[in-house]
Specification:
10 strands, disordered C terminus, six-stranded mixed barrel, four-stranded antiparallel beta sheet, globular, disordered N terminus
Amino acid sequence: MILGMIPILKTLIGIDDYPSYCDYDKKIHTDCAHNLKFSCMIRFEFTHANFFPLLYVNVMSKKFHNSIMKDKMVYKGNNVVGALMNVPIFVGTFSVVKDFAVLENIDTYRDEGMGDVIFGEPFLREVGIKTKRFEGIITIYNGDDEITYQMVRSHLRFKHHTKEQCNNIPPLLKLSEEDKMNGISHSCQKLKGFYKGVLNLGPDYIRDAKMEEWLTCGHISVHDME
């Protein structure tokens, strides 16, 4: 089923071919060119999610689910703990609503060291995404709004870092010419303004005073693009 979607996905994201060293029937590898991660907010949780367009579900770990939900999931001996429906995901100045399969053990999908959230083909269908896989660039857009990240492993500043070191550094937020014209000179300025809408989602969402302060006032550790 997954392999049958490859021609469609190629058209959607403008990818000419898929590297043979990525085994799509097994784990998602951190050194695979299609495994691009980006910064987003899921509820009140700021996270660096992995994007892998061939995965036919959006997946999150039970640990991450329990960090953003009031009702905690309990492990009952089945790896698929449950589903999380209609969750707003904030990327840049816009949001999309998506569903997730929640797993007790997410290691069957990912290499060690990857995050607890993986976006797949269902996420791809809802947002505009352009990738330059060998340059390690992912642009996510909605209408006139767009946000671009560069993967650390593809940036010259980090060329002497090991793969493990690069995997531990958040993706690099790239400023656009429009950002610079609007007086934004550092990525942290842009990032702080992304999530103002997250703070007014209503009583069903976790409200954390420390998170609110961190998002709007605190210092966010993020590398600026040169």
